[in-house]
Specification:
Elements: H1 6-9, H2 15-24, E1 99-100, E2 105-106, E3 109-110, E4 114-117, E5 134-138, E6 141-142, E7 148-152, E8 155-156, E9 162-166, E10 177-181, E11 190-195, E12 198-201, E13 205-207, E14 210-212, E15 217-219, E16 222-223, E17 228-238, E18 243-244, E19 249-257, E20 267-269, H3 280-285, E21 293-296, E22 299-302
Parallel strand pairs: 5-7, 6-8, 7-9, 9-10, 14-17, 15-17, 16-18, 17-19, 19-20
Antiparallel strand pairs: 1-4, 2-3, 4-5, 10-11, 11-12, 13-14, 21-22
Length: 305
């Protein structure tokens, strides 16, 4: 069915022809030329084109809520941009936007999870990334401004804070670096926390024969030959299988409890860290355990009772 024009017919249109012309606009039609709309074009269905749609102006949604370009089921192929900016807008106050990777890979973003780029992305339990934050991982997010979280269930509460690992112990210290090593949301802990001019390590540092820990040591310490080793800790209890190799020196800083037997070539004790006591009774009152070392002046003694 086509439109009937009076100029083409050469006479007035009949009632049937007028009705047919109106009915023409209720179905689907092809446009072989150009369509110019000076006002608004309102389409309740879909606009399908087998050729490229050329637009010289700007596509603007009808309301501030915006509209989606594609969907997880029907998505666009590629996006080409010149020297232009990509602006993420949202509400309230233009603070919600996100980049989400569906499937195994999207460009250079790999994985089936989400990459959240602030401002303010809704995440676990309603928390949101603040402006300038970046989060990658499972249920990881930054409440602090300019924060970075990488890992599993990690959270950055401090401004410009970087948190990696898993299930970190949350704090609000700004400009800090945290490595989480917790096992669940109810058992959060940090392997390392660096803030200001201090670094706190809850585990042990072992490098080039140096053993340092802020926690109690109850372990086997095996120092290889020709090595100078340093053992630091508030309470050190060496197991019987601990060894110090030939031509090696083990320096201990802290309260040490030796095992019943140990293969030792050389041990250097810092007398300033040992408790001063004249006998086992005084040593016991001072907190030295049975088998522990204490000093009587320049002499090293072992508490036996």
């Amino acid at each position: 069915m086509a439109l009937t024009y009076r100029g083409t017919k050469g006479s007035p249109l009949t009632i049937e022809e007028i009705d047919s012309n109106f009915a023409y606009f209720t179905g689907s039609h092809s446009i072989t030329g150009s369509l110019t709309v000076s006002g608004s074009l309102i389409v309740s269905g879909s606009i399908l084109s087998t050729e490229a749609l050329q637009i010289s102006g700007t596509l603007i949604p009808v309301d501030a809520g915006g509209a989606a370009l594609g969907s997880p089921e029907f998505y666009w192929g590629e996006l080409y941009l010149s020297s232009a900016s990509v602006n993420f807008m949202g509400s309230p106050n233009n603070q919600i936007a996100s980049i989400k990777a569906y499937g195994e890979s999207v460009g250079n973003i790999f994985g089936s999870g989400n990459v959240y780029i602030a401002p303010n992305i809704g995440t676990l339990s309603g928390f949101k990334n603040l402006r300038g934050s970046f989060s990658v991982g499972t249920a990881s997010y930054g409440i602090g401004t300019g924060s970075v979280t990488l890992g599993q269930f990690v959270r950055a509460d401090g401004n410009y804070q970087t948190v990696v690992g898993a299930f970190n112990q949350v704090n609000s210290s700004s400009n800090s670096f945290v490595i989480g090593n917790g096992t669940s949301t109810g058992s959060r802990s940090n392997l390392l926390f660096a803030s200001g001019s201090q670094i706190q390590v809850t585990g042990s540092i072992i490098t080039d024969g140096v053993y340092m820990t802020p926690q109690t040591i109850n372990n086997n310490i095996n120092v290889p030959s020709n090595t100078n080793a340093l053992l630091i800790g508030p309470s050190i209890s060496l197991n019987a299988n601990s060894t110090v190799g030939a031509n090696s020196v083990l320096t201990v800083l802290g309260d040490i409890t030796p095992p019943s037997s140990i293969n030792v070539n050389s041990i250097t004790l810092n007398l300033n860290t040992l408790i001063q006591a004249t006998n086992d009774t005084e040593a016991a009152d001072a907190g030295v355990v049975v088998g522990g070392l204490y000093r009587n002046g320049n002499f090293i003694q072992i508490r036996l009772v």
